[in-house]
């Protein structure tokens, strides 16, 4: 099976610095592979090991993301492609999905697209389903387990349990963090990754104009981001007996 | 076919003959580790992937005799010799700017003697200073030389640049603490300064070699004073209404007591400290001090200090800040806290009499702020004497204002330094208090000394006629 | 081609000198390259266009991975991350020094750094399955079997039944130090985990702290499931507290060397000391003890850089000489291997478990 894995490079949790336009200041912070994308990559590698074919790691980001793609190659991916160009920068989820879908089409499509369910720096969870929609293929989100046999079967994590879905190919699956533990690089893989070429693509290469990419093309804007003050829980725990008194105190205007 | 001359290999054989094959290295990866010390330009250069200054041979002597033989070889071939201890100097003093030989002194790290009768400790100069301090601690003493580079630099390094520690106001600078030294002269002669530092036998040899930054000889062994650990240490902090009252209070209390720690901050630096302590902003200049020794004496000293502070309008802020600061004093120097690449920064320390120090503070601030308005400027005074005190002025340039081109960056860096240091010198300040001259300030030495420079040049010429020891440093 | 994590640590360490007073290798060689800073600078320059040369690869192996530097860093940086990855790079680029290559080949061929086909420990009568498994590690199995046999004697005296695997696989500890943390090492860890599972053990007593540290930390990250892991020191300490061992008393002065993985990686200092006190020993500490302990050398280092390991061990004995103790003990087989061979005249070294056995 040929599988394309969409990988995003995200800041290493707590050190995020935001620029004035609320996009991320990437330069001074350690960047890591998005944890949920690691699961997607591991799953893709396992499917490839079993059925043959090729795994392509695809990412959109600054040139720095090339290092992450080489790591993906060292862990067993067969090819790596990076959408990188200043015109791509600052894309919201819709535009990101548009770019990924266009890239996937430009690469000739695949039997399976594997993504992380959400990125650690944005957590919208929108890009996977949007990309599937643009490619007009079925999509299972929040997968804890998936199996690629005659048909694709995936277990989706929900609030109250698990829903099992099946569909045909091509299909897109988004994986939960730590659903599959990503293997370490092998010495052979590292050797290969050193020499390998990471294909760099620009908007023209994937059939998009500058007007369709980046911050300018994004219909949504981030208006405000704030960090949750660590260790502060805004909720207060009360017993049934205390309930009325607590409500009166918190909402005096309600006249309880 | 690689085209290379083989003269380097001829010299290498001679050097290996002296120290052993395993103690000479010419590998590129080895050599480039000596291209960066704490000098901003060297770090910036390496960060931008430029080739660092490199020696041609790294040699690791194990004894003064080996140092002597190496210097004789260097003199014969007229090869420059640089000296490296911990390589943690901030002025580029250890950088191998002239190529040639780099003598890494760290094999010479033996403890020679602890003389408990005389309260002295003797060790080879390549020992990291923290090791020396620990040997003293094991017996219940301390050298009381506690710089931020305690764990980084060697004994020879501290002596070479006339270093200072946070306790210097009470216990002295390194030049006060050094009793005697063994030095290898550029011609290979091994000499000892007198066994004690106080005498009437002519000019003091200790003070000629201390602060000579590897230009007049190689320090191979040194003896230091040992102090008993103090029974009690008390901290106190104050908020003075302005710089003047703080400086005057400091001057007055230096006449009556010798605090071990005395740190006084300008308004800019005080701002954030005060906010942390009081929980709100209040203008003024912050002072943090400590007295230590026998408890009964310390109690009295603290009373005297409180009286003097009151006289000059200082608000008493208690002891908590000082204690916390002391616990965390080193944390600042680890990566993540300390200023570093990609910022541009420098510490333009200067020292002057009380009559001049305030003038200098304002003059430097004005000169730097006017010529380089994008620069942040903070200052504090942390080492005090009866006649005056030093001033640590730090300038910080945000990464966005640092030129991309490395050579442009060097130019800006040097211009800021020229501006600040000249403002200090013009108002009676000295070119540097305790970081040394190194490469960074070498070009300003003649301006500082005028005709007095010939005394040092004379020494240099007579001791090192071939000019092989640490070229381009110290203005020599 | 280093990971982001390695690059971040290297870029932090390359310009910082704060931990250099602690490196046990630097203290004996005096080489600038035997400091985390120089290694960090080299890695940062490798990422900026410098090519790794043979000397750089050798530099990366001239390190005991003892963690003294990591422990010192007030802002949480870890030179071991980029040092291990640099070793991986050396392997990828075929720049591994010949002496190290020999040891790697031995491990790949025989499963241990000694190239031994059979363990030297007397395992007669010891079952291979049971609730409690004792994990010996390569050093005890092949180099200092008396430490393992002493532990057996102590467990038997305390009435604790135990199993030992005749063909105990490597835990991945020495391979991880030789190759860095690559998939080949994780595969080794998985084999070890499998062997433990097959033994049916609910609890594993680990004699070698290098194995214990890897099992406690990396195995979890690598998805290798394990039952309860307990160090041999904690186990014996517990047995003494439960009154299951009565020990002959002494009044001798002794000093104790904290093994680096035990003291820093596992943050364990008191069980060994409690064991000594339970025998009546008066412990006179070396200046650098517990988390500050100066490493005396590892078994892997002893194989590929025996001269440096010897000098590092001798330097630790110099610390002993500045106490008034004439007797040294330590709880890890790798410490025993290094220190027993370098005891100066008039000084004695006894492995902690051998000591307990002597006091049974």
Can you walk me through this structure?
Chain A is 28% helix and 23% strand. Mean pLDDT of chain A is 88; it is low at 20-28. Chain A is globular and about 70 Å long. Chain A is an alpha/beta fold and 256 residues long. Chain A has one domain (2-222): HUPs (Rossmann fold, 3-Layer(aba) Sandwich). In chain A, the strands form two sheets. Chain A has a nine-stranded mixed sheet with strand order 9-8-7-10-6-1-4-5-11, sandwiched between helices. In chain A, strands 2-3 form a two-stranded antiparallel sheet. In chain A, helix 2 packs across helix 5 and helix 3 (93-106) crosses helix 4. Chain B has four domains: 7-106, 2-Layer Sandwich (Uridine Diphospho-n-acetylenolpyruvylglucosamine Reductase, domain 2), CATH 3.30.43; 107-228, 2-Layer Sandwich (Uridine Diphospho-n-acetylenolpyruvylglucosamine Reductase, domain 3); 232-333, Alpha-Beta Plaits; 344-440, 2-Layer Sandwich (GMP Synthetase, Chain A, domain 3), CATH 3.30.300.330. Chain B has 17 helices and 19 strands. In chain B, helix 1 (7-19) packs antiparallel against helix 4. The two termini of chain B are 41 Å apart. Chain C has helices spanning 4-13, 24-29, 36-46, 54-61, 68-72, 79-92, 98-110, 138-142, 145-157, 173-179, 183-199, 209-216, 218-221, 232-241, 260-265, 270-278, 299-304, 306-321, 333-340, 352-358; strands at 132-135, 203-206, 228-231, 253-257, 282-283, 327-330, 348-351. In chain C, helix 3 crosses helix 6 and helix 14 packs across helix 16. The longest helix of chain C is centred in the middle third of the chain and has 17 residues, at 183-199.
Features:
heterotrimer; A: 256 residues; alpha/beta; Rossmann fold; nine-stranded mixed beta sheet; two-stranded antiparallel ribbon; 7 helices; 11 strands; 28% helix; B: 476 residues; alpha+beta; Uridine Diphospho-n-acetylenolpyruvylglucosamine Reductase, domain 2; Uridine Diphospho-n-acetylenolpyruvylglucosamine Reductase, domain 3; Alpha-Beta Plaits; 4 domains; eight-stranded antiparallel beta sheet; five-stranded antiparallel beta sheet; 19 strands; 37% helix; globular
The major β-sheet of chain B equals:
8 strands, antiparallel
CATH class of the largest domain in chain C: Alpha Beta
Overall strand count of chain C: 7
* Number of helical regions of chain B: 17
Q: Count up the domains of chain C.
A: 3
Largest interface: B-C, 48 and 41 residues
Number of helices of chain C: 20
CATH architecture of the largest domain in chain C: 3-Layer(aba) Sandwich
The counted number of beta strands of chain B is 19
**Residue-averaged pLDDT of chain B:** 94
Strand fraction of chain C: 5-15%
- Class by helix and strand content of chain C? alpha/beta
How many domains comprise the coordinates of chain B? 4
The name CATH uses for the topology of the largest domain in chain B is Uridine Diphospho-n-acetylenolpyruvylglucosamine Reductase, domain 3
Q: Per CATH, what is the topology of the largest domain in chain C?
A: Rossmann fold
Radius of gyration of chain B: 23 Å
The secondary structure category of chain B is alpha+beta
Q: What's the multimeric state?
A: heterotrimer
Q: How is the largest sheet of chain C built, in terms of strand order?
A: 5-4-6-7
The low-confidence parts of chain B are none
How can the largest sheet of chain C be summarized? 4 strands, parallel
């Amino acid at each position: 099976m040929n599988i394309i894995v969409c990988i995003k490079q995200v800041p290493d949790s707590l050190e995020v610095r935001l620029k004035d336009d609320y996009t991320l200041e990437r330069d001074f912070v350690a960047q890591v592979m998005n944890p949920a994308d690691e699961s997607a990559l591991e799953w893709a590698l396992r499917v490839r090991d079993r059925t043959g074919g090729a795994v392509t790691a695809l990412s959109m980001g600054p040139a720095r993301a090339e290092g992450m793609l080489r790591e993906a190659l060292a862990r067993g991916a067969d090819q790596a492609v990076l959408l990188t160009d200043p015109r791509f920068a600052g894309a919201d989820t819709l535009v990101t999905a548009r770019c990924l879908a266009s890239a996937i089409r430009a690469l000739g499509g695949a039997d399976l697209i594997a993504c992380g369910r959400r990125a650690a720096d944005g957590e919208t969870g929108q890009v996977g389903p949007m990309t599937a929609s643009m490619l007009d293929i079925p999509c299972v989100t929040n997968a804890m387990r998936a199996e690629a046999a005659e048909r694709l079967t995936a277990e989706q994590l929900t609030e109250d349990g698990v829903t099992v879905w099946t569909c045909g190919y091509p299909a897109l699956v988004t994986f939960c963090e730590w659903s599959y533990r990503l293997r370490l690089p092998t010495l052979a893989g590292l050797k290969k990754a050193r020499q390998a070429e990471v294909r760099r693509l620009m908007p023209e290469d994937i059939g998009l104009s500058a007007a369709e990419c980046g911050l300018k093309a994004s219909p949504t804007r981030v208006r405000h981001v704030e960090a949750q003050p660590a260790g502060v829980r805004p909720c207060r725990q009360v017993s049934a007996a205390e309930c009325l008194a607590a409500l009166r105190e918190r909402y005096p205007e309600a006249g309880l | 076919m690689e085209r290379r001359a083989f003269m380097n290999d001829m010299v290498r054989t001679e050097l290996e003959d002296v120290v052993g094959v395993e103690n000479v290295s010419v590998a590129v990866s080895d050599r480039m580790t000596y291209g960066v010390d704490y000098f901003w330009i060297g770090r910036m250069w390496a960060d931008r992937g430029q080739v660092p200054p490199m020696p041609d041979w790294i040699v690791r002597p194990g004894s003064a005799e080996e140092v002597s033989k190496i210097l004789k070889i260097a003199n014969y071939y007229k090869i420059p010799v640089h000296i490296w201890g911990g390589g943690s100097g901030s002025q580029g003093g250890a950088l191998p700017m002239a190529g040639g030989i780099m003598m890494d002194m760290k094999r010479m790290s033996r403890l020679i003697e602890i003389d408990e009768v005389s309260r002295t400790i003797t060790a080879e100069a390549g020992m990291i200073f923290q090791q020396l301090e620990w040997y003293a601690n094991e017996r219940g003493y301390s050298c009381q030389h506690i710089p931020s580079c305690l764990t980084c630099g060697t004994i020879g390094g501290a002596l070479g640049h006339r270093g200072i520690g946070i306790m210097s106001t009470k216990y002295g600078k390194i030049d006060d603490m050094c009793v005697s030294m063994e030095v290898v002269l550029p011609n290979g002669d091994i000499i000892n300064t007198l066994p004690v530092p106080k005498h009437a036998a002519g000019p003091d040899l200790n003070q000629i070699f201390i602060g000579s930054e590897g230009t007049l000889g190689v320090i191979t062994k040194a003896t230091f004073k040992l102090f008993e650990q103090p029974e009690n240490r008390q901290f106190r902090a104050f908020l003075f209404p302005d710089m003047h009252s703080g400086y005057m209070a400091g001057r007055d209390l230096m006449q009556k007591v010798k605090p071990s720690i005395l740190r006084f901050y300008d308004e800019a630096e005080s701002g954030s400290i005060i906010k942390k302590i009081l929980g709100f902003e209040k203008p003024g200049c912050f002072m943090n001090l400590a007295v230590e020794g026998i408890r009964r004496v310390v109690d009295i000293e603290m009373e005297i200090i409180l009286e003097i502070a009151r006289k000059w309008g200082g608000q008493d802020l208690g002891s908590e800040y000082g204690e916390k600061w002391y616990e965390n004093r080193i944390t600042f120097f680890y990566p993540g806290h300390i200023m570093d690449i990609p910022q541009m920064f420098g510490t333009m320390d200067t020292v002057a009499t009380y009559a001049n120090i305030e003038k200098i503070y304002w003059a430097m601030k004005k000169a730097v702020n006017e010529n380089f308005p994008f620069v942040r400027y903070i200052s504090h005074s942390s080492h005090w004497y009866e006649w005056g005190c030093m001033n640590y002025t730090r300038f910080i340039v945000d990464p966005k204002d640092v030129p991309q081109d490395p050579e442009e960056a060097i130019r800006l860096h040097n211009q800021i330094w020229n501006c600040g240091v000249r403002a200090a010198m013009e108002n009676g300040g000295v070119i540097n208090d305790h970081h040394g001259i190194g490469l960074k300030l070498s070009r300003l030495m003649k301006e500082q000394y005028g005709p007095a420079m010939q005394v040092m040049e004379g020494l240099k010429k007579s001791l090192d006629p071939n000019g092989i020891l640490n070229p381009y440093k110290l203005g020599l | 081609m280093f990971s982001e994590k390695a690059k971040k640590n290297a870029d932090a360490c390359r310009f910082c000198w704060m931990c250099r007073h602690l490196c046990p290798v630097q203290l004996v060689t005096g080489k600038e390259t035997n400091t985390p800073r120089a290694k960090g600078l080299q890695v940062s320059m490798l990422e900026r266009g410098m090519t790794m040369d043979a000397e750089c690869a050798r530099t990366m192996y001239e390190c005991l991975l003892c963690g003294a530097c990591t422990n010192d860093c007030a802002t949480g940086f870890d030179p071991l991350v980029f040092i291990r990855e640099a070793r991986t790079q050396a392997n990828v680029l075929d720049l591994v020094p010949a002496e190290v290559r020999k040891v790697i080949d031995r491990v790949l061929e025989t499963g241990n750094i000694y190239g031994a086909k059979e363990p030297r420990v007397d395992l007669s009568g010891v079952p291979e399955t049971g609730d409690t498994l004792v994990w010996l590690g390569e050093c005890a199995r092949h180099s200092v079997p008396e430490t393992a046999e002493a532990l057996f004697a102590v467990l038997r005296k305390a009435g604790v039944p135990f199993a030992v695997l005749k063909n105990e696989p490597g835990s991945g500890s020495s391979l991880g130090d030789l190759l860095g943390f690559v998939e080949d090492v994780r595969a080794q860890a998985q084999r070890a985990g499998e062997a433990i599972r097959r033994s049916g053990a609910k609890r594993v007593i680990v004699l070698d702290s290098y194995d214990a540290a890897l099992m406690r930390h990396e195995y979890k990250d690598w998805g290798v499931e394990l039952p309860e892991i307990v160090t041999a020191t904690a186990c014996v300490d517990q047995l003494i507290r439960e009154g299951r061992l009565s020990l002959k008393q002494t009044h001798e002065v002794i000093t104790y060397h904290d093994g680096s993985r035990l003291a820093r990686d596992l943050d364990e200092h008191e069980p060994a000391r409690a064991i000594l006190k339970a025998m009546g020993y008066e412990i006179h500490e070396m200046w650098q003890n517990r988390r500050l302990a100066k490493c005396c050398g590892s078994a892997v280092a002893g194989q590929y850089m025996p001269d440096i390991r010897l000098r590092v061990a001798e330097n630790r004995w110099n610390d002993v000489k500045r106490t008034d103790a004439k007797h040294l003990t330590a709880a890890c087989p790798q410490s025993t291997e290094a220190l027993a061979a370098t005891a100066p005249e008039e000084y004695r070294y006894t492995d902690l478990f051998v000591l307990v056995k002597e006091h049974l």
